[in-house]
Design brief:
The protein is α/β, with parallel strands linked by helices and 393 residues long. It has helices at residues 15-25, 43-52, 71-80, 107-126, 177-187, 204-214, 234-246, 262-275, 315-329, 342-345; strands at residues 4-9, 28-33, 36-41, 58-67, 93-100, 139-146, 149-155, 195-197, 255-259, 281-285, 298-302, 333-339, 354-360, 363-372. The protein folds into 2 domains: 4-155, 2-Layer Sandwich (VC0802-like), CATH 3.30.2130.30; 177-216 and 225-392, Rossmann fold (3-Layer(aba) Sandwich), CATH 3.40.50. It is built from 10 helices and 14 strands. The chain has a 7-stranded mixed sheet. A hairpin with a 2-residue loop joins strand 2 (28-33) and strand 3 (36-41). Helix 6 runs parallel beside helix 8 (262-275). The longest helix is centred in the first third of the chain and has 20 residues, at 107-126. The model is unreliable at 376-381 (pLDDT under 50). It binds S-adenosylmethionine (SAM). Residues 171, 173-175, 198-202, 204-205, 259-261, 264, 287-289, 303-305, 310 line the site of S-adenosylmethionine.
Length: 393
């Protein structure tokens, strides 16, 4: 099977995890880029990547690179590509443009100029042209320009891969599915230890954990744009799906999803049902500050309210209570807390053993790990030592 270059896009901070996922699927020549990983693979890997990767947003297939110093050169170079290979007259298309640097400063203008070049090529060769559909096109073309360096790719994904298809309902301030999966992978969860999602909102962490633990493909409920490509191989696609089905494994562990809000629990349950993992998760309406560990240790993952979109009477006091509660009632666990409220995070009052910069949407966040056991680590600090937020400034 032919191999070619591919680009997997992701969120800031998840590039290494994505590269590891790609290598596990058989990708070669992986190279970390800014919010993306470049790799080499076959059409089969392109299908698998869309269907199975948990920390990827889109898979792009580069088809041309060139230099352009002005709009005429951009137009001419786009027109040199044989667009009949990628697009038929019956199909609709859309162009996404992204620009950085001083030569091209308006991404919408770049998209418009590129659209003109494609349309003009069809008109000259066939007398007619394919139509544009910016919302739901058959073929999506990506033009990325950095200074004078232009790269043209075909988007094999369409709607980004964080849209798995199960979260049709959500509570206020949900976490991205890709970020949730990335955090679980970053935590190194062994898929056996008890998993706690104590402020579950729409249930994203729990559902992602259940999918991951069983190797259930993320893409089961959705479509991909490569299914509309002129070279779409339906037999190969079915083989990829059949193999993924065979790789699903049973999960014996426990996933506990709780939230203070009854509606959040109802929404989480509906989402888990759609994802096919409701049987793997125990949903309960509960206040985290009244809860305690159920078995021997486990992994806790949560994004408490940030006070950005969610209001909390006294966010700083609340974060302090969360830290104290973890210390007293979750001994033996590892807790990973992500928050966009960097000030409030300082008031957790426990010493984090890891700090990772991430973004939830546009919001800069910190993911912090707390090891909740009495400090027997050789030479290390007592991780449960309560520290004053002011002492760190
Ligand atoms: C930022 S949202 C979590 C989003 C969630 N990860 C998702 O994917 O949708 C914070 C959640 O914490 C819940 N919450 C706030 N205080 C709580 C408490 N003391 N105990 C349990 N849940 C709480 C809120 O009801 C809200 O659903």
């Amino acid at each position: 099977m032919n191999t070619f270059d591919l680009i997997a896009t992701t969120q800031f901070g998840l590039e290494e995890i994505l590269a590891a996922e790609l290598k596990a699927l058989g990708a070669e020549n992986t190279e970390i880029l800014n919010r993306a990983v470049k790799f080499t693979g076959t059409l089969e890997l392109l299908y698998k990547s869309n269907y199975l990767l948990r920390t990827c947003l889109k898979i792009l297939k580069p088809i041309a690179t060139f230099e352009a110093y002005n709009e005429t050169q951009l137009y001419e170079n786009i027109k040199k590509i044989d667009w009949s290979q990628y697009l038929t007259l019956q199909q609709t298309f859309a162009i996404d443009g992204t620009t950085s640097g001083e030569v091209f400063t308006h991404s919408k203008f770049v998209a418009l100029k590129s659209k003109d070049a494609i349309v003009d090529q069809f008109r000259e060769n066939c007398g007619v042209r394919p139509s544009i559909d910016p919302e739901d096109p058959d073929i999506r073309i990506n033009i990325h320009i950095s200074d004078i360096n232009c790269s043209v790719s075909i988007d094999s994904t369409g709607v980004p891969l964080n849209k798995r298809g199960y979260r049709l309902e959500q509570t206020f301030a949900p976490i991205s599915e890709v970020l949730a999966a990335g955090i679980i992978l970053l935590s190194g969860w062994d898929r056996k230890a008890d998993f706690y999602d104590p402020m579950c909102g729409s249930g994203t962490f729990s559902i992602e954990a259940a999918l991951l633990a069983q190797n259930i493909p993320n893409g089961q409920l959705r479509k991909f744009l490569f299914e509309k490509w002129t070279n779409f191989d339906a037999v190969l696609w079915q083989t990829v799906k059949d193999e993924a089905e065979k790789a699903i494994v049973p999960f014996e562990g426990k996933i506990y999803a709780t939230d203070l809000d009854k509606t959040a629990i109802e929404i989480s349950l509906q989402n888990a049902r759609r994802a096919g993992v409701a049987a793997n998760i125990e949903f309960t309406e509960a206040d985290f500050l009244q809860s305690k560990v159920k078995g021997e240790g486990g992994l806790i993952v949560m994004n408490p309210p940030y006070n950005e979109r969610l209001k909390n009477d006294d966010i700083v006091e609340f974060y302090g209570e969360v830290g104290t509660h973890l210390k007293h009632f979750y001994n033996g666990c590892d807790a990973w807390i992500i928050s966009g409220n960097l000030e409030a995070l300082k008031f957790i009052g426990l010493r984090p053993s890891r700090k990772i910069k991430l973004f939830n949407g546009q919001l800069e966040c910190r993911l912090q790990k707390y090891e909740l056991y009495r400090g027997s680590k050789r030479g290390g600090n007592d991780p449960l030592q309560i520290i004053s937020p002011t002492s760190r400034r």
